[in-house]
Each structure stands twice: as C-alpha cells, then as structure tokens.
C-alpha cells in the first residue's frame, strides 16, 4: 500500500518510525521545505510544494498513492485545504492528525488574537520586552511596532522580510523543558510572550513557565484547517491504514484527475 504523509510535525516523525519497517506500506514523507536542515527520516522523503490542489492530485495519481495522511502543523491550513480537495477529487482516503489546542487554565493570563498583526497591536504603546515563540514566517508583522525589544526563537534565520530594529534571535529546536524556559524568561526579563497555539507537549513548557512567573501571553488563534478522517496520533493512523488495506479501493492510477 502506497502512503503519502504530509509532514513537518512530531506526529509525522512518529508515524514515519512506525511505518518505516512495516512491509505492508510503501511510505513517502513530504516536507514543505520551510526548515533548512530538517531531521533525517527513515522513509523516502521529498521536499517542496506540489503546485496547489491540482499539482497534488497529479502527483498522487502519478505515484499511485493509495492513502494520504495529513500530519502538518495546525497553522498549515493551505496544504490541508489542498489535500482535502485533491483526495476528494481522486477518491483517495485521507486521514488528518488533529492535535488538540492548548487550553488556558484559571491562573493563566491569555489574550487571544486572530493574527500576528493583531498580536503586534496588542503589545500596546509602552515599550516591552517581548518573547516571540511563533516561528519565522510572521515576524515581519512586528516591524510596525519598533518601540519594543524582541527576542525571537526560530529554527532557521528569517526570510528576507522587514524586521523590527531591536530584535535578538535564538536559534533552537524543541522540545524544551520548564526549567530552561523559566531561566530564559527570567534572564531576558520578558514582559510578555507571543505564541501560536500549536498544541502538543514539545513547546508547552513555555506556557508552564509564563504561568509560574505571572507573565501574560498573547496567543494567536488557529486558522480554520480542513481535514479528512480525524485521528489524534500516529498509532491511530496505523489502525486506520490497516482498515484501508482491507477495504482498499482500486489504485488511484485507475481514477481520473
């Protein structure tokens, strides 16, 4: 059975490890290419986009893919939309790993906003020391608020975008632990954290640390993310794939685009 995993997350890495030595599945992992040096994976890996829903549908048909797993980041809404469109067109089974969002506790101080631009606005007129833990794609939104001091944590340097003048970078990849996160927030005398609601355990320690230190969080809400059959983890995907093998329709090579 030929399987495509749309990856880039911890769940995708977990799934590749489960499928790598399983002779029932011939697995390809697709990465968007936003990280310069992604971790090596134990299955065949491709990097880069497909060219929208049409390009993905063409690739699925050419490669005779029998099932697709969307294990992309909760904020990767465009590729998920393309996957739903392409798989619906070809009648290729699609499962989506839906990572639960973080939920505020009573002792958290969160302000939920709709975008990075709204997060920049929410920082207010008084200069603050801001920890940006949200990836590099939206850092340009904070260039319009140059009166703050920013500490931005990313895996790679940002793309060629306008940045606020007073910004410091920390290049690091999770997971992170609460002790290190607390020390970081204290050492940098952080006044406020800006974060995406990524969910999962790998970067949740920063939320624990803000709670312990009484630091407010500006939380960028998730976009609407189209999905296929909903599962919560890699193990559930394997069970779903086993069901697809039993009830498998003809290979998508026999289906028209």
UniProtKB/TrEMBL annotation:
Q: Which Pfam families match?
A: CbiJ
Query: Which of the seven top EC classes does this enzyme belong to?
Result: oxidoreductase
Q: In what pathway does it function?
A: Cofactor biosynthesis; adenosylcobalamin biosynthesis
* One Gene Ontology term from the biological process aspect of the record: cobalamin biosynthetic process
Q: Does the keyword Oxidoreductase apply?
A: yes
Q: Which InterPro entries match?
A: Precorrin-6x_reduct (IPR003723)
Q: What is this protein called?
A: Cobalt-precorrin-6A reductase
């Amino acid at each position: 059975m030929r399987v495509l995993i749309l990856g880039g997350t911890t769940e995708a890495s977990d799934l590749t490890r489960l499928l790598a030595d399983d002779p029932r599945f011939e697995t390809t992992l697709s990465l968007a290419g936003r990280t310069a040096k992604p971790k090596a994976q134990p299955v065949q890996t491709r990097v880069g986009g497909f060219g929208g829903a049409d390009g993905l549908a063409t690739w699925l048909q050419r490669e005779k893919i029998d099932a697709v797993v969307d294990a992309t980041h909760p904020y990767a809404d465009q590729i998920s939309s393309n996957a739903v469109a392409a798989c619906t067109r070809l009648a290729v089974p699609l499962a989506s790993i839906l990572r639960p969002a973080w939920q505020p506790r009573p002792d958290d101080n969160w302000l939920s906003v709709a975008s990075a631009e709204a997060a920049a606005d929410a920082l207010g007129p008084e200069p603050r020391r801001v920890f940006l833990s949200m990836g590099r794609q939206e850092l340009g939104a904070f260039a319009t608020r140059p009166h703050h001091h920013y500490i931005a944590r990313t895996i790679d340097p940002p793309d060629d975008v306008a940045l606020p003048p007073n910004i410091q970078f920390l290049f690091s990849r999770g997971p992170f632990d609460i002790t290190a996160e607390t020390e970081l927030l204290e050492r940098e005398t952080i006044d406020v954290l800006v974060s995406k609601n990524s969910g999962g355990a790998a970067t949740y320690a920063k939320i624990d640390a803000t709670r312990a230190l009484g630091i407010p969080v500006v939380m960028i809400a998730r976009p609407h993310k189209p999905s296929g059959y909903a599962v919560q983890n890699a193990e559930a995907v394997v069970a779903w794939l086993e069901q697809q093998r039993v009830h498998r329709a003809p290979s998508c090579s026999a289906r028209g685009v």
